[in-house]
Amino acid sequence: MKSRFTLLAVAVVLTIAIVWVSVFTMDPFPPRRITIATGQPDGTYDALGREYQRRLRREGLTVELQRTAGSVDNLNLLGRGAVDVAFVQAGIYRPAEDPEQRVRGMAAIYREPLWIFYRGESIGDGLASLAGRRISIGAPGSGTEAVVRAIFEALGLPAEGANVVRLTSAEARRALEQERLDAAFFVASYVDVNVAALLHRPDVHLLGFTRDVAFARNFRYLTPVRLDQGLLDLKADLPRRDVTLMAPAALLLCRESLHPRVVEQLLTIARDVHGSGSLIDPPGRFPTREGVDVPLHEAADSFLTRGESLLSRVLPYWGLRWFLHLRLILLPLVAVWVPLFGILPWLLNWRGDRVLQRLYGQLRDAEAEAASARSETALREVIGRIDALRGHIETLAQRLPLQRQRDLYHCRVHVSLVLAEARERLAAMAPPTPEARV
């Protein structure tokens, strides 16, 4: 019984040790909740965040949305670890500002053009015509402000001054409609409510890029997007003429420590949402690694190269979490208890053999002492030990398993044999009675 208790204690200790090692060496459990930084209220990122939230909720992953000023703000939040995932415009990530590489890319999910709306007569000589006019270059911390500043610097145009203001998309739209602005920049999808509203206004015009190839070569994160007349709205004939815009990609970024299964789940949702394409993006192009100017998360690289893992394909997110929990329980069972139950019969047999060997050793010694005893007192002492050994064997018979009973009965027979021989020798040592002498 003591041996069995020791064996059980060792198994329990090994189980606890393996569980502890598993927790610290395996992937941590996928979280139940994540936070996604979106953008300005009623903007494209805000709408996307709500769509991702709805779809992920069905998979068992709760999403909290955090509205922000835009891409720059989102990037800062990711770098500080304040959010898990963010929609960020391509072209604003600076490796020098992320020395610990806390930010990772997941995929480019669609193209969002740079829209330039202006009032007044048609402009024919490009962005230079906006010099001296009252313009909005995007809200502070937004991707719009970042890309406009870069373009203005390349063109030698001022990004500061009394005529340059920084308004949110909704504020810039209202200012244009109320004639308080001459022009405004927006980086947004064509379905953005502010862009759609301005496209429908006859007194507001859309400025195209006439040197799109030059801009694309100088700004690697910008790609030309041609909008043919009527592409966005056939009935309203929008845009009213062919126009070429420059578009950065909208990126899905995350913390470098985000669980790989969450990354796969997000990219699966991105594929469902953006994979069918749009009026300006061909089907099957997104999500993609092309246009991602941020180091890719390892799980995202694997997903975009080889597809999702087997577990993610066959299990929903909630089922995946349960599977990983069960794996932590099953591993100790497989590693400790299965081998334990495999060797337990052998161990018990070995233990039984040891007990029998010890009994036979004691019996052999007692038999030798009985054979060499020279006095009745010594022989009686040996007989008492043999009798005690027989009682010990009878007690063992009640505790050992059935498969060992035959061995114990054999041992009892042999003990009885030796005991009988010792008693015969004792009888032979006794002095003869008077009747025997006559």
Task: Outline the structure in words.
With 438 residues, the chain is an alpha/beta fold. Among the domains are: 113-247, D-Maltodextrin-Binding Protein, domain 2; 351-437, Methane Monooxygenase Hydroxylase, Chain G, domain 1, CATH 1.20.58. Helix content is 51%, strand content 13%. The protein is built from 14 helices and 12 strands. It has helices at 2-25, 44-59, 71-80, 143-155, 169-177, 193-199, 212-218, 260-274, 298-306, 310-314, 317-372, 376-397, 405-429, 434-437; strands spanning 33-37, 62-66, 85-89, 103-111, 114-119, 135-136, 164-165, 183-187, 204-206, 223-227, 243-247, 249-255. Strands 2-1-3-12-4 form a 5-stranded mixed sheet, sandwiched between helices. It has a 5-stranded mixed sheet with strand order 7-6-8-5-9. Helix 4 (143-155) links the parallel strand 6 and strand 7 (164-165). The protein is rod-shaped and about 150 Å long. The chain starts with a helix and ends with a helix. The mean pLDDT is 85.
